[in-house]
Amino acid sequence: MSFTKEKLLYAYTTMKKIRLFEEKVYELFTEGQMPGFAHLYAGEEAMATGVCAHLTEKDFITSTHRGHGHCIAKGADIKLMMAELYGKSTGLCKGKGGSMHIADMDIGMLGANGIVGAGGPLACGAGLMAKTLGTGQVTICFFGDGACEQGTMHEAMNLACSWNLPVVFVCENNGFAESTPFGYHCAAKNISDRAVAYDMPGITVDGSDFFSVYEAAEQAIGRARRGDGPSLIECLGFRYYGHFIGDPMIYVTEEDQQRNRARDPIETFKKRVLEHELLSEEEMSEIDGKLVADIEEAVEFGRESPLPDIKEVLTDVYVNYP
Amino acid sequence: MTARKKTFRGAINEALRLEMRRDPTVIIFGEDVAGGATLPHMEGENREAWGGVEGVTKGLAPEFGRNRVLDTPISESAIIGTAVGAATTGLRPVAEMMFIDFLGVCFDQIYNQGAKMRYMFGGKAQVPMVIRSMIGAGTGAAAQHSGSHYSIFAHVPGLKTVVPSTPYDAKGLLISAIRDNDPVMFFEHKVLYDMEGEVPEDDYTIPLGVADVKREGKDATIVTLGRMVHFSLEAAEKLAIDGLEIEVVDLRSLSPMDESAILESVTKTHRLVVVDEDNPRCSLATDVIALVADQAFDYLDAPCKMITAPHTPVPFSPGLENAYIPSVDRIVSTVKSLIG
């Protein structure tokens, strides 16, 4: 594998941006400054980043309830994201979606989703569009290990493979369906083994390692773009913050927590690029400094933006309703 | 425009065909919509194959090819979710869900995904899809293949719900539905498929949310749609023998609903009967009566009456099924009781 400097900078910047964003959101929610509730992506940064590194703004992704990371990796503006989380009129969805339905249609981010496993069929739809019109666009369906047990995911994988759609299924296996451990909710040892049932390639990779995810995604997305059909990538990883903010995570042992911290995706990446002298400590700390300022700016923007006009409750239900 | 006789089935087929010719982003998919078409051993007289279990999409696969007329696996959630995803990204899919009862399998993709997407995303998405599905009792298909259930969809913000009653309306409403930028549920009564009527050859549209007065009268208003339009017209014919002039308002769409047509008719006739093949709780019938009670109460000379299916599933045994479906006799006697 060889990497352009640009790609490595993208990788580091994106992962760090997700981490800082999520840490800030955690802080704001915990302080009661933000309404509703949120599911944080911290710990899984290498997965969205390694996959989206191969996409352009024209490609599509479907996301999950844990969607901030996908949104950032796909290229959404964090100011508009933060405003959305604050429920402000300047938000990506004018404050009507919130954390769980955040979307950015302009860059092919087809929405976080409050329904586990619902993104599979939607990804098939975007894939069908690209195939029918011959646009060359690829669609990534991100889903969690919990979603693997939804019928929709089986239906979607079967349909995508039957119709040879340009869709890549990326399972982010963080080990828990809410609080239920993988071994209790999934009858398979590896989710990637299920690819066999649909006659597509399946692979399990270390989801904490950007380079492993990147390489697997390169193969799968290349295959989809060539018209050779779907693939399934299972990324093994963990999340730092529990299912939602406020989840005390009593179901994760201290031992597991320690093991997770030891394989932190950003630290793993840094170690690798420093070892191989691909990026320098200075370059990365410069990025850190800029990102901290960007996050503060985003918070400021979100906080200061106006709330939606009350009349907005009635708009955007239909394009036209006589 | 030349009009000629077409069946209800043929009118829908023609609407699909014309829209697919006009717009390359219109595609159709569902269980058996091609149904064997284009298979090598199905040439000659079998060339058009099944074209759906009721033959509504017959001939479309040979004309437009398998890339635009797609047989799906029996995966209802995948069918509807694919339609939603395709619609938000640039196609105008027409998905077929064989029976309305099957929509229970994939309700999430309709009401959490397709219907809510535009709102959740602050108006930045549109979902121009049509879901066609069969409704109605009368063929002995029993509880899981005979429901009407359209009120469930009319209840959901973000969806439009259309129920045509004639071949002419079916064609014009379906063309409008396909061109519409919102998700439209389009329900076809299976007993009407063989019904014939005048249908112009060319394309034409009937706006969604505009009722049609199928018969004018001054003594009572019947508000209805779908197959019940024909039962109501038959009842009106019988009542005419007694000198009663009954107005039959065919709503054609439940959502949007043509409230002004209902109010206009009731303020003229002062009596209202709603005839609805769906179950009665929180239904088209209760909705129309609530509207009139709220906005035309002072014009009423008699209580509003609803004639609906009972609060039961559709039974199998022919006698029971007949008892389930609102009858012409019930309509006649109910209207008479109001005029007395």
What does this protein look like?
Chain A has one domain: 3-Layer(aba) Sandwich (Rossmann fold). Helix content of chain A is 43%, strand content 10%. Chain A has 11 helices and 7 strands. In chain A, strand 6, helix 8 and strand 7 form a beta-alpha-beta unit. In chain B, helix 1 packs parallel to helix 7, helix 8 packs across helix 12 and helix 9 crosses helix 10. Chain B is of the alpha/beta class. In chain B, helix 2 links the parallel strand 2 and strand 3. Classes of the chains: A alpha/beta (322), B alpha/beta (340). At the A-B interface, helix 5 and helix 6 of A face helix 3, helix 4 and helix 5 of B.
Give the SSE map.
The complex is a heterodimer of chains A (322) and B (340).
Chain A: H1 5-30, H2 45-52, E1 60-62, H3 68-74, H4 78-85, H5 119-133, E2 139-144, H6 151-162, E3 167-173, E4 176-177, E5 180-181, H7 182-185, E6 202-206, H8 210-225, E7 231-236, H9 254-262, H10 265-275, H11 281-304
Parallel strand pairs in A: 1-2, 2-3, 3-7, 6-7
Antiparallel strand pairs in A: 4-5
Chain B: E1 3-7, H1 8-22, E2 26-30, H2 60-64, E3 69-71, H3 76-89, E4 92-99, H4 107-114, H5 117-120, E5 130-135, H6 150-154, E6 160-162, H7 167-179, E7 184-189, E8 196-200, E9 212-215, E10 220-224, H8 228-241, E11 246-250, E12 253-255, H9 259-269, E13 272-276, H10 284-295, E14 305-308, H11 318-324, H12 328-339
Parallel strand pairs in B: 2-3, 2-4, 4-5, 5-7, 6-7, 10-11, 10-13, 13-14
Antiparallel strand pairs in B: 1-8, 6-12, 9-11
Can I get a quick summary?
Chain A is of the alpha/beta class.
Query: Could you name the CATH homologous superfamily of the largest domain in chain B?
Result: Thiamin diphosphate (ThDP)-binding fold, Pyr/PP domains
CATH superfamily of chain A: Thiamin diphosphate (ThDP)-binding fold, Pyr/PP domains
Terminal CA distance of chain A reads: 57 Å
Domains of chain A (count):
1
What is the count of helical runs of chain A?
11
- The low-confidence parts of chain B are none
Rg of chain A, Å, rounded:
19 Å
Assembly context of the chains: heterodimer
In CATH terms, what is the architecture of chain A?
3-Layer(aba) Sandwich
Return the string of H and E elements of chain B: EHEHEHEHHEHEHEEEEHEEHEHEHH
CATH topology assignment of the largest domain in chain B: Rossmann fold
Task: Give the overall form of chain A.
Answer: globular
The number of helices of chain B is: 12
The SS-based structural class of chain B is alpha/beta
